[in-house]
Structure formats: C-alpha cells, structure tokens
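Message: A physicist's question: would you kindly supply an amino acid chain plus fold tokens?
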Amino acid sequence: MNFILIYDIPTELESVQRQTHRLLVRNGCKQIQRSVWKSEELSTLMDIAIFVKKSGGDARILEEKFVF
C-alpha cells in the first residue's frame, strides 16, 4: 500500500524546501508532482510531514487508492 504526502512550504523558507526534498529522496520516496510524493513507508512520511509543519509549512498524508 502506498501513501501520498502533499506539502506546501512558503517560498521564503527555501532552506526548508531543500531539506524536505533531500529527506524525501534519501528515504526512497517517489515524486508524483512538485510537492506530491509517494512511499510505502507511512512512518517516514509522518516524520517528514512533522518536520514540514514544525518548520512553518503545511503537510497532509493520504492513502493511495485508485477508483478508476
């Protein structure tokens, strides 16, 4: 099962954007769109989402489910 992380980091927090991208890549997450990534590891995405929120951004995690 895959989980989807959707996040938004204000442009003035450029260092947080870079750190988030590095965390996602380092943990083997796959990019779907610019701020939309997927992974089978929920705990990894949770840690990254918490980092984003504590750093001033917003993050949501969804369960991937195809309907059609």
The radius of gyration is 11 Å. Residues 18 and 43 are 20 Å apart (CA to CA). The mean pLDDT is 97.
